[in-house]
Design brief:
Helices cover 13% and strands 34% of the residues. By secondary structure, it is mainly beta. It folds into two domains: 76 residues; 66 residues, Signal recognition particle alu RNA binding heterodimer, srp9/1. The strands form two sheets. It has a four-stranded mixed β-sheet with strand order 1-4-3-2, covered by helices on one side. The mean pLDDT is 89.
């Protein structure tokens, strides 16, 4: 067994199709670290970009039978009321690349707190904020 991840919290997104995940998140710069192919019931996929780790569960239509998530309509946007933040260097160049293939929800903007970011939606409806790096622990203006 390898070293533990560098975080006490891991984000796990439930999705019906790993191929779409690998294509979309691959274009964002994520690489598959390991994958358990869906075996008729479920699979698992872990992707990494620099220090960011995203996990994906399911990989087929069986995700709609999950004990908790099956309470909601299949066509409900995934991740409603959740924002996943991904830090990137050279955000202007990254934005020009990403806007060619992703659904941009909010264009690249200098925010009141002094950092540039933009927002996109992944193929499943998850809301992603792409931001210049900053220390979230000390993000108050003037700190």
């Amino acid at each position: 067994m390898g070293k533990p991840a560098l975080s006490d919290v891991i984000l796990e997104l439930h999705v019906p199709n790993f191929e779409e995940v690998k294509d979309f998140y691959g274009r964002l710069g994520f690489k598959a670290v390991w994958e358990q192919e869906p075996d008729g019931f479920k699979g698992y996929l872990v992707m990494k970009r620099r220090n960011a780790i995203l996990c994906f569960w399911g990989g087929n239509d069986e995700i709609y039978n999950h004990p908790y998530f099956k309470k909601f309509p299949k066509n409900m946007k995934r991740g409603y009321a959740v924002e996943t933040v991904i830090f990137v260097e050279n955000i202007e160049t990254y934005y020009e690349k990403v806007k060619r293939f992703a659904k941009v929800v909010e264009e690249l903007t200098l925010q009141p707190w002094g950092n540039k970011d933009f927002r996109i939606e992944d193929p499943f409806g998850f809301y992603l904020r792409i931001s210049e790096p900053y220390n979230t622990l000390y993000a108050e203006k003037g700190s």
